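USER: If only I could read C-alpha cells as easily as an amino acid sequence. It would mean a lot if you studied the pair and described how this chain folds. Here is the record:
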Amino acid sequence: MVETAASAIAVEAYKDGRSIFGYISKKVEFADDFKFNFEKMTDQARMLYARRDDVEAEINKNKMKRVTKECEAWIYRVKVAEQEVLKLESKYKKEIMHAWRYARLWSRANLSKHMAKKREELRVLLEEGKLDNGVVADRSPEHVRVIDTCGIEDKPSLNWAAEEILGNLRERKIKRIGLWGMVGTGKTTVMQNLNNNKEVKKMFDIVIWISVSKAWSIEKVQDAITQRLKLRLEGQANAVETAQLISNELGRMRYILLLDEVWDPFDLHEIGIPNNDNDSKVVFASRFRDLCYDMDADELVNMKRLSDADAYKMFEEKVGRNMKNPSIIPVAQLVVRECAGLPLLIDKVARVFRKKDNIHLWRDGLKSLQRWPSIKIQGMDEVLEFLKFCYEDLDGEDKKVCFLYGALFPEDRDIFVDYLMECWKAEGFLDSMDKFQDARDRGHNILHDLINVSLLERSAVKTHVRMNKVLRNMALKISSGVSDHKILARPCEGLKKPPKEEEWTSASRISLMDNDLCSLPATSNCTNLSTLLLQRNKNLMMIQESFFLSMQRLRVLDLHATAITSLPPSLPCLTHLRALYLNSCEGLIELPSSIEALVHLEVLDIRRTGIISLPIQVGSLTQMRCLRMSLSNFGAGNPMSKVISSISSLEELMIDVDPNTLWSDQVMRTITEEVSTLTRLTSLTFSFPKVECLEIFIRSSPLWKDLRFTFQFSVGICNSVKHHILDYFEYQLCKCLKYANDEGTNPVISEVLTETEVFELIDHKNILSLSDFGTENLSKLRACSVEGCKDIICIIDANVAPPCAFEWLERMVINNAPGLHCIWNGPVPVGSLGQMTSLTLYNCPKLKKIFSNGLIEQLSELKHLSVEECHEIEEIIIETENPCLDPRTLPNLKKLVVHDLPKLRSIAPNDLLIWPSLERLDIASCPSLLKLPFTRINAINLRSIDAEQSWWSTLVWQDDAVKDRLRSFCNFT
C-alpha cells in the first residue's frame, strides 16, 4: 500500500513538472491554507452574487426591453458557478467535521486547491459582469404592430382587393404584388388591414408596414425598417452598410414588407431587401400603375372605387346618430352619390354632415356639395389638392389638355376610345401627326399615361374609358381658370333650351350632348370655339342658317343621332373643321355640295343616315383620312360614282352593310374593286356578301398583308360586323374575320386566316373541325367563336394538325354546336392552347368530355371555364381520360360556371386537386351533382358560391367542417 501511494505521488509530481519533494511541499501549503482558501472563495462568491442581483434588478426594472444575449450567457455561467460553489462548501463542511484525522491531509489539500482555483474563476466572472453591450437591449421586434384602422370585412368593394392580394401571397412563385389606383380609393386602408390580418400573421415571421410618402429617400425607408427591426447601427453607418445590416437580419426570417404610398420606383436591393427563397413577400401601394411594373411586380391589383352600397355604409358609420332620422336618408343617398365612391372624400363629407342635425341643414349641404368645386366647402379643397397633384405631375401639356377634354363627357359614362383619339387629333393635341395610325398610337400612349396615374379609368367594356365625378369636377375647375380651355359642359341635364349667349361666347369647347334641345341660337359669337358636341339630342330637327357663321375655328362637330334633316348654308364657314359626325341622323338625306369648303376635314361619319349618294365634291377633300359610311350611301341606282376611289388620302374606311338589304353581285364587285384601288389604306371594315368579293379585294390590294394593316371582314350574311368577343380583351385586336352562312372550305378564307387574330364561324355547314381550314393557318388566333355549326364534331383534329396548334389562343366560345363530341381529337402536343385563359361551352347536347386525354395539362393559364346546357356531360374532369393528374392541375382557374347539366355527377375525381386560384363557383340546375371536390385544405381562395338553396340541401358531406366553411361563401338564388 505504501509503495502504491508513493508511486501515485511520483506520477502526479511528474505531471506537475516538479520534484517529489517540491510537489509534497505544495500540497502541505494547500492544506495549511484550507480555511483561507474557503473564506476567499466564499467572499468572491458573495461579490459575484451581488453583481448578479444588480443585473437582475436592472432587468426587472426594464421589463419592456429584452436581455442582451451576452447578459443571458453571463447569468447562466453565474448559475453554474453557484452550483459548483455549493458543492465545494458541502465538501469543506465534511472535512471540518473530520479535522482530527491526519490521514485526510491529502484530500484536504486537493479540496483547498479546487477552492483556490474556483476563487480565481469567480474573480474573472465578476470582472466579465461589466457587460460590454449592457444588461438589456430593446426587445425583439413585435411579430405585428397592429394599426388602428377601419375594418373592411363588411365592405366587399375594399375587401375584394385584400382577398386578391391574400390569394397572391399564398402563391409561392409570386414575390412582389402591386396595388394601384387613384387617390382616395382606400389603398391605405387595404394595406393596413393586410398588416392586421390574422392569416398574414401566420404566414410570416414578421409583418412590416411602412408609409413611403412623397418626401421619401433611401435613408428614410432604411431608418423606418431598422427601427421596426430594432437594429443597432454602429456609428455613422452609410446607406450601403445599413442595407447589408437589414439584408442580414431579414435573410434569417420569412417577412412581408408592406410599402404604402410609393411615389417613385426604387431598387429594393438598395434598401436592403434580399432576394431570398424563404417565401418572403413585398406588397407596394401606389397611385401609378407603371410604378408597379418598374418595381418588378409579379401581379397587379387595381383598386376600384366603392360600390354604392359600400359607400353608403361607410358614410352611415362615419355620420353616426344623425342618420337615424328617416327623412334624411333620401338626401344622404344623394350626398353619397356626390362622393363618387372615394373613401377619402366620403370621410371628409361625413365629417361635415355629422354636424347637421335637421333636414334643412342637410338639404342646404347637398346643394352646396353639388356646386363644389365652384364654391368652397370645408375639407373638400384638401381632396381637390390631392387630385390636382396627379394632374400637375403630368409631363407635357398634351397630356393635360387631353385630360381636361374628358370633362366634356358625362361623369362615369363610357367614352369610346377610338372616338376620343379622333377628337384629340382634330384638336391638334397629338403633335399634328400626318398619318392617322401614328396619331392613334400617340393617343393610346397618352391614354395609357392618364390611366396609369388614375385620372381616367378603364370601363367594363375594354374599348372604353371613364372619368369619375370628382375628377371631372376638378377638370372643370382647372379649365375655368385657363382662357384657352374654358369649357361649357352640360351633358345629360335634360336641357330643353340652349344655354345663354354669353356662356357660348366665352367657351372654347361646348358639350350639350344627351339633352332634349329642340333648337339652337340663331347666331352666336363663338370665335374661340373648337369643339361642339350635340349628339343624341333627339328632338333637334333644325340648325339655323347662320348658326356656324362665327365658328371658323371649330375643329370637332358631333351631331350624330339628332333629328336634323339638312345642314345649314353656313356650313362652308367651318374651314378648320377636322371631324364631322352625322351618323344615325336618319332624317338627313343629303350632303350639300358646299362640303367641298371643308378643306381640312379628316373624319366623316355618315353611317345609318338617309343619304343615298355621296356628292362628287367629297372626292376633293384631300385631307380626308377616315370615312365611315353605309352601303346604302352609294345609292342603289348609282353605285359607280367612283367617289371612294377619288379620295386618294383615305387611310381608314368602314362600310356598314344592312343584312336585310340585298345587293346585286355586280354592285358589290364594283364597290369592292373601287375600295381595292386605295393605296394609302391602313384599316378596312367591310361586309363581303360572298367569298368571291373578298377574293377580289385580297387579289387586287396587297396592302391587307402589311404588318400595320387592320381589318374587320365579314363574309356571308350575318347580323353585324361587330365582334362581341373583343369586349373581353384589355388590348385591341385588329385583324378580325367573321364567316357566316356558307359551307365547306375555301382557299381564300384559309389565306385570310393566316393573318387573322379573331375568328368567328357562324352557321357554317359541311366541315367537321376547324382543322379543315388548315390548322397551320390558325396559328395567329387570339380569340375564336364557333356558333350554330351543326356538322362540327370537334374543334381540333390532331390527325390533321401540325405539331403544335392554337399556341396564342386566349379565348374560345362554342355556342349551339349540336354535333360536337369533343374539343380536341387525338394526342395533344405540348404548347397547344398554352395561352388559353377562357373557355365557354354553351348548348352542345352531344358533348360528353371537355378535357380529353392530355388536354387539361396544357391549360395552365385557364382562368374562366363555363359549361352550360351540355346535357350529356357527366364529369367535368373525367378520371379515365386524365389518370395520374397533378394536384396542381388548372393552377390559375378563378371562376367555374356549370349550368343546366342534368347528368353532371362530378367536377373532379377524389378531391385530388388543390384548386389554388379558384375564387368563384356558379352552379345551377345540376341535380345529379351531390358532392363538391373540396376539403379543409384545398380551394383556399374560394370566396363565392352561387347556387340554389334546394340543391345545396341535397349535398353529401364527409366532413361538417368543410360544409360550414363553404356555407359561409354561399349566395343562394
About this structure: The mean pLDDT is 85.
